[in-house]
Amino acid sequence: MKKITAIIKPFKLDDMREALSSIDVHGMTVSEVKGFGRQKGHTEVYRGAEYAVDFMPKVKVEIVAEDERVGQIVDMILETARTGKVGDGKIFVEAVEQVIRIRTGETGNEAV
């Protein structure tokens, strides 16, 4: 099993969720996060004072899937989250050693 973590622009979340649902991916964890990379933030003016916004709002989506589905899921995320502009985000794929469903005690693929 693998954990896919995608850091994306917030306005792309609904498109990505709908696309993933269309390929039978129904479980995910979503968190609002802030960060910066090459996008580096921007400056804003508030009540006449200019200040820098260093951390940009992003959304972190985490999905655990069977190894065979990872490529399809990553491709769908790339297709729906890409705008072609700086700050589109990143996708990380990591190995998952064990999954346990708390309610039933199921483990492995059955717990996903």
From TrEMBL:
Record-linked SUPFAM superfamilies: GlnB-like (SSF54913)
Record-linked Gene3D superfamilies: 3.30.70.120
GO molecular-function terms, A-Z: ATP binding; enzyme regulator activity
GO CC annotation terms, alphabetical: cytosol
Tree of life domain: Bacteria
Gene Ontology terms: biological process: regulation of nitrogen utilization
Keywords assigned: Nucleotide-binding, Phosphoprotein, Transcription, Transcription regulation
Residues with O-UMP-tyrosine modification: Y51
Description of how the protein assembles with itself and partners: Homotrimer.
Family: Belongs to the P(II) protein family.
Record's protein name: P-II family nitrogen regulator
